Automatic annotation (TrEMBL):
Pfam families: Aldedh (PF00171). Belongs to the aldehyde dehydrogenase family. Keywords: Oxidoreductase. SUPFAM superfamilies: ALDH-like. This is Aldehyde dehydrogenase family protein. Gene3D superfamilies: Aldehyde Dehydrogenase, Chain A, domain 1 (3.40.605.10), Aldehyde Dehydrogenase, Chain A, domain 2 (3.40.309.10). It comes from the Bacteria. One of its GO terms (molecular function) is oxidoreductase activity, acting on the aldehyde or oxo group of donors, NAD or NADP as acceptor. It comes from Actinomadura physcomitrii.
Length: 492
């Protein structure tokens, strides 16, 4: 990729490219070559303070929260156009910075970026930001006010996509945003900043300041921020929720998952199992909503294991720049070690490795793990209860439909899931019994920007996407007015 995209010397603070407060830098290491491919300044608390101050001034005194929804929508629509022009830049940077296979980039890194800005531009034009309520001789105006300065903290697996899930609705609501991308993959988020600047976002409304955990905590606890929007691990989410609780600060959390796909007895096993294996290997398994527990009737279990092993062995692994590759490296050496550790724990607990389980041959560099199928997994094993975040799929047998529902729900998580069946009506009935934030029958998902995404239980708090995603950045307010102002309040 071009040096201008891979080597950044300035932050984007308040709409301008500005020098960092100190000279420390974050090296970006390619997961496929283990070599430095870029770098960015490393934020320190002083950089966060500047970004929050710019956002605070823009919110308290600037035009953005005071623009009409239509005016903000115009900026978001222009941002969508600017982002479409940059999709190849975003994809190319993420291949280098976090190892996403280029074949997966349209689905995982760019496909839901520009369309999301278009969606929230359209929604802002039609959303009921104000309504008049009349009860007898009492009249109230109910308004939806922007929550304020948003601290948005995003992970490395889909940096621009997940930043957009927060920035687009927050901006549509009239909020200002300080965005902290992850130290592992900080580069692509600057492309988002460039697009928003081109779209005419006013001064101070958006800042991008990458850094590690300490500056993230400084941003979360900063008295100048009003709302925290976080995507990441459940452990980090619990810490952030605790910090926000101390300040009664608004918070939304999109956290981990250990989602179950229930294969009912009438499903076409030969078609379903390879589909589930491919889905679990998307972005090398580094997807919070991946269906990593496959529940299969015991009578069909041996055949399902055989089919899954064959499918996993056929998955192309290698250089993420190769369009034929499906599984690239994991983001970091520590992540590879984590995945290998879970495979070892599974075997020690009695599971069997039906395919994979090691490092692929012919790839002496890079943090790769083979697509792995674990059989004879019991739902009580750690490998079935904890998020691995790698190309590992667990197959679990069940006795009947009630047993399958029990196993699917026996998890601390509740983010995603699926039901596969030859009878879609039955699939819907089973899906309704699963305690999870989203679930697909036979792989059928509605258009993503239109529907909420988020989790039950330890998978998070609040929702992103859809109208619910916009509401999470709004504060309802009631204004009592004299009855003489009835029907005039909406026009004022």
């Amino acid at each position: 990729m071009e040096d201008r995209l891979m080597y950044r010397r300035e932050f984007f603070v308040g709409g301008a490219w500005t020098a960092p407060a100190e000279g420390e830098r974050l090296d970006v290491v390619s997961p496929s070559t283990e070599e430095v491919v870029g770098c960015v300044p490393a934020a320190v608390p002083a950089d966060i303070d500047r970004a929050v101050a710019a956002a605070r001034t823009a919110f308290d005194e600037g035009p953005w929260p005071r623009m009409t929804p239509d005016e903000r929508a115009d900026v978001l629509a222009r941002a969508a156009t600017a982002l479409r022009k940059r999709e190849s830049d975003i994809a190319g940077v993420t291949v280098d910075e976090m190892g996403c296979a280029v074949s997966q980039a349209p689905r995982g890194q760019t496909g839901l970026v520009a369309p999301l800005f278009d969606y929230y531009a359209d929604l802002a034009r039609t959303f009921e930001f104000e309504r008049e309520v009349v009860s007898g001789d009492r009249v109230a105006l109910v308004t939806n006010e922007p929550a304020g300065v948003v601290a948005a903290i995003t992970p490395w697996n889909a940096p621009v996509t997940l930043a957009s899930w927060k920035a687009a609705p927050a901006l549509a609501a009239g909020c200002t945003v300080v965005l902290k991308p992850p130290p592992e993959a900080p580069l692509s988020t600057f492309v988002l900043a460039e697009a928003l600047a081109e779209a005419g976002l006013p001064e101070g409304v958006l800042s991008v300041v990458p850094g590690g955990r300490e500056v993230g905590e400084h941003l979360v606890t900063h008295p100048g921020t009003d709302k925290v929007a976080f995507t990441g691990s459940t452990a980090a989410g619990k810490r952030i929720m605790s910090l926000c609780g101390d300040q009664v600060k608004r918070v939304s959390l999109e956290l981990g998952g250990k989602s179950a796909a229930i294969v009912l007895p009438d499903a076409d096993l030969a078609a379903v199992i390879p589909t589930l294996v491919g889905g679990a290997m998307h972005m090398s398994g580094q997807v919070c909503g991946a269906h990593t527990r496959v529940l299969v009737p015991r009578s069909l279990y041996a055949g399902a294991v055989e089919a899954a092993a064959a499918a996993a062995k056929a998955v192309p692994v290698g250089d993420p720049h190769d369009p034929s590759v499906l599984v690239g490296p994991l983001v970091a050496e520590r992540q590879r070690d984590r995945v290998e550790g879970y495979i070892k724990l599974a075997v020690e607990a009695g599971a069997k490795v039906a395919a994979g389980g090691g490092r692929p041959a012919g790839l002496p560099k890079g943090w790769y793990v083979e697509p792995t199928i674990l059989a004879e997994v019991d739902n009580s094993m750690r490998v079935a209860r904890e998020e691995i975040f790698g190309p590992v799929l667990c197959l679990i047998p069940y006795e009947d439909e009630d047993d399958a529902v029990r196993i699917a729900n026996d998890s601390p998580y509740g983010l995603s899931g699926g039901v596969w069946t030859g009878d879609p009506a039955r699939g819907l009935r089973v899906a309704r019994r699963i305690r999870t934030g989203s679930i697909a029958v036979n792989g059928s998902y509605p258009p993503f920007p239109l529907v909420p995404f988020g989790g039950f239980k330890e998978s998070g708090l609040g929702r992103e996407l859809g109208p619910e995603g916009l509401r999470s950045f709004l504060e309802p307010r009631s204004i009592g007015v004299p009855s003489s102002l009835r029907s005039r309040t909406m026009a004022s």
